[in-house]
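idk why but the lab printer keeps eating my pages so im just putting this in chat instead. protein + HMH:
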Amino acid sequence: DDGRGKTATWIDQYRLMYDRATRHPFVLSIRDGTVDISAFKRWLGQDYIFVREFVPFLASVLLKAWKDSDDDSDVEVILGGIASLNDELSWFKREASKWDVHLGGITPQKANVEYCRLLQSLMLPEIDYAVVITAFWAIETVYQDSFSLCLESGSKTPEELMETCKRWGNAHFKEYCCSLQKIADRCLEKAPGDVVRKAEEAFVSVLEHEIGFWSKSSGES
Ligand code: HMH
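predcted complex ->
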């Protein structure tokens, strides 16, 4: 044990995969201003479908925190996430109408269906809180890391995509991700070896699905 949390160790250990998830060509194209707007629209519609599935997943994490956490503030952090999701769904609808994307008629891509299936498998009651809070942290952090890259000085993100990038790239969302990371590290510290291994698997699985999601939703065949 080097005194750092498990999650930081895993990011280092799976650095290549982590970078593929957070420095995806689609995200880099937003940052350098060369993004194909039809790819952006495709991503927007697919992500709306994903975020709708994210609601019951978060509810299941909340339930596990309420039942199994030894720290009351976990529930408050997760509840804050659920509250922002409500706002996020409204934002998706506004943004979609702005771009003339019809959310009703969208078929989820295979990568999206598979990612939603992963969420569903993590919602099962027998999956430990330490595992699901780790997955939750990873899901949010990939977006935080990706979109904050598009806000860094020197980036050429188109003005009309700034709001999207700020949604996940802003300092408040970063703090929220740090709170989730602290919770995950605390849970992993106390978890037995087999649970830690399952959490590591869930982390890797999230990265794989994020990479697939970026690729397919932005239009790779
Ligand atoms: C695919 N991953 C995906 N969509 C999101 N909206 C997030 C993570 C962050 O909430």
